[in-house]
Every structure is written in C-alpha cells, then in structure tokens.
Amino acid sequence: MGTQIRDIRSVRAWGLARRQHFVVTRGDLLGLGFSEGSIKHRVDRGRLHPVGRGVYAVGQPHLTREGRWMAAVLACGEAAALSHRSAGALWGIGVERAGRIDVSIRRKSDVRRPGIHVRVRPSLSAGDVGSRRRIPVTTLVRTLIDLATELSRSQLERAVNEADKHDLVDPEGLRSALNEYAGQPGVRLLRTLLDRHTFRLSDSELELRFRPIATAAGLPTPDTKRVVNGFEVDFFWPELGLVVETDGWRYHRTPAAQARDALRDQTHTAAGLTRLRFSHHQVRHEPQRVRRVLARTAANLRRS
C-alpha cells in the first residue's frame, strides 16, 4: 500500500484510486493539481499505467476484472455505466462475453474504444443506473431486460433464477417492475419466460393430463378436490397417505399464498401424510419426471 501511495504522491488521489479499483482518469489527476508534465513523468517512471484513453492504473499495470470494468466505464466519460452481459456478470447472474465489455452511455456520443462495446442510449433514464461495488451499472431489472435482447431463453432463465437465488430481486417485484417498461425490447420475452412457469391449466385439463401420469407410475385412481385436514387438495391417495398439490412457479405466488402453502404442508405432515408438489409446467412439459417421482414415492410408501 505504501508503494502505491508514493506512486500517486497524494493521499486524496490514493483514496480516489482505492474507491475506483486503482483506476484514475486524466481529469481526476488534473483536478488534484497534477500537471500534464507530472502525469507523463509518472507514466514514464511506471507509477501510472495507461489502460485506456485518459485512464490510468495506479501503482501496477494489471487490474482485476472489476478494475477493468471501472476503467471501461471511465474511458467512456460522463453518464456511462456497465450494461448488458458485463452488468450481468457484475450482478452475478451471467457470464460476460470474452474480450468485450458492455458499456451504455446516457448521452449522444461517438465514443469508440477498443475492447468496449459502446451503446449510445440517451433515452436510458438515470433511474436505470445505480452502483455495485462502486462501479456504475444498470439496475438489476434494467440489466435483465437488456439481457433478454441477447440471451437464449435457457440462458435468460438461468439469469432470472440466479437473481432470485441470490435475493437480488423480489419475485413479485420483478413481475410488477416490468409494467414500467411495457413495449421496450426484451420485456415481452422476459414476461413470456415468467409466464412459462406461472401459467395454470384449468382444473379439468390438469386432471386429464395428470391422471395418465399417475397411472403410468402404478398408482390407482386418486380422489380429486377432496378436503383433507381442512384443506382442499388436488389429488389424494388415502390408502398411501399421499397428497399431491399442483401450482404455478413461485413468480406467480404472493408471499401470502406461499405462507398458506407452508401451513398446508405443515398440517399434512403433522397428520402423517406425504406431500408432493408439482408445477403445472411440470405436469404439461415434464411428465416423465413427474412419473418417476410418483413411482419412487409410492414404492417407498408401500414398503413402509
């Protein structure tokens, strides 16, 4: 640390570099009282290392990935922020494209920088830009919408799942937030992705699809819509003590609904029943998986 302080020759500049991942701009240095000559002198002596037009690494030429992101944003000037795949990588919900850093600029500009994919977006609002690890970056919701314009459906689904897993976005909040971006590129695909997991079959269609799966798993005909322990259940095998509930993915369920489901499951468990949950999506699109789970569960129950 001491060497890096001597390199910059200013505690204020050291503080700035530390906050910005050991990266400073020429404007920062001039503002701190360094002359053009003193900047050149420090470059010649290896105390400052150019990492982009008007951007320098302090003390050492090699930057961390976050340092490179910061350098890219600074190189693009005012109102710039990390976006798209690079923003996804910073948020921890995706992998950036090798050899390219995505930066959006909220002003008209003709900036071109090697290794940086510059996107000129004057319509990008200030509210869509925040900070993560002190790096200007598009907000999580804005990042997901931008990613929806570039990623495949499966890649986008992984990004949404990662955001949920890391508690970066409230599931219901994500759905609600999309209302503010209606009509923008990426929103429709993102909605479709969420709806893929939240659509609900009608009771009759669900029963028509589920009964053959249960039969193939070696189960007898279940009771349907029967009240068990004070709750109406979707499918019930009293001889096995097995209850199967079907519902949409959690993006469709409110916290209150999730709390009710937890109480329902606890009540059935306390009564000695076995509960399984399948989404409507699984019943419709993953019947083989549902069958295997049902068959294995039934076999275990019969043995016990």
What does this structure look like?
This protein has 304 residues and is an alpha+beta fold. It folds into 3 domains: 62 residues, no CATH class; 118 residues, no CATH class; 101 residues, 3-Layer(aba) Sandwich (Endonuclease, Chain A). Helix content is 47%, strand content 19%. Strands 9-10-11-12 form a 4-stranded mixed beta sheet, sandwiched between helices. Strands 1-3-2 form a 3-stranded antiparallel beta sheet, sandwiched between helices. It has a 3-stranded mixed beta sheet with strand order 4-5-6. A hairpin with a 2-residue loop joins β7 and β8. α6 crosses α7. The longest helix has 17 residues. The radius of gyration is 27 Å and the shape is elongated. The termini are far apart.
